[in-house]
Amino acid sequence: MNFADALRRLEPTAEITALGSVRGLDTTLIPARGYPLELIPPVPLSRKLSSDLLQTPTRLRDSVRVASAVLDRVRAEVVVGFGGYAAMPAYLAARRRGLPIVVHEANARPGVANRVAARMTRHVFAAAPGVRLAHATAIGIPLRPAIAGLDRASLRDAARQRFGLRRDGPVVLVTGGSQGAGAINTAVSGAAAALRAAGVQVLHITGPRHTVDVPSGRPADPALRRRPLRRRNDRRPDAHRFYERRGYTGQAGISSRFLRDLPSCRG
């Protein structure tokens, strides 16, 4: 979506249609950003020999057919893919129609779809130089202006007030990614007493799949706040340390403006 926003800024008349699936956050995030979403059947690849793996060719064929119909209907001129369940059908449909393909890999380890697509096109880009992807050029991660231009100093007091944190003292921001992470949640919950004893406040952002129980404390104890993740802008700029399960996408957003000079621990 950040790429789509940037494209719109460069070319306001560009028509952009997103391909997605019912899995993940496509049906929530894409319409909220104002882009039309076309759903195609997801094609997950089983990692072990099973009936699901044997059905993959049939599922892929059906999904490519749906993706092809969408490309024809919107008169697509180029397909830009970032991996995921909808990427492989879109890449194959684009290749059959002779459409240009652009691939961007945001993770340290490319998925199957992007590894295959990288051999269909010379337009291959990655988040970092160390990504093993055929003839990829490292260009970083697209970031929204709201993040790239964030003024932490001016927002600090409002951020603490919004999340019920004290105006002084260190703050730890914990997040397990878009779906949350059970192991991180359990670890932070178990460390609650030690964190409070050290005078550390915690803002724990949880996903829809994994929640966390916040142990009760005394009124005078530092705050431990749990907040469901609703949108990326909820990550307010007043943390002294991050604990997060993330890939290059999360790391780019954090290091660019949030905590340029502060430590972050990758789970």
Brief sketch in words of this structure:
With 267 residues, the protein is of the alpha/beta class. It is built from eleven helices and eleven strands. It has a five-stranded parallel β-sheet.
Could you describe the 3D structure shown?
With 267 residues, this protein is an alpha/beta fold. It has 11 helices and 11 strands. The protein has helices at 2-10, 26-32, 51-54, 56-73, 87-96, 112-117, 145-148, 152-162, 182-190, 192-197, 248-258; strands at 18-20, 37-39, 79-81, 101-105, 124-126, 137-138, 171-175, 201-206, 224-228, 241-244, 264-266. Helix 4 crosses helix 5 (87-96).
What layout of secondary structure does this protein have?
Elements: H1 2-10, E1 18-20, H2 26-32, E2 37-39, H3 51-54, H4 56-73, E3 79-81, H5 87-96, E4 101-105, H6 112-117, E5 124-126, E6 137-138, H7 145-148, H8 152-162, E7 171-175, H9 182-190, H10 192-197, E8 201-206, E9 224-228, E10 241-244, H11 248-258, E11 264-266
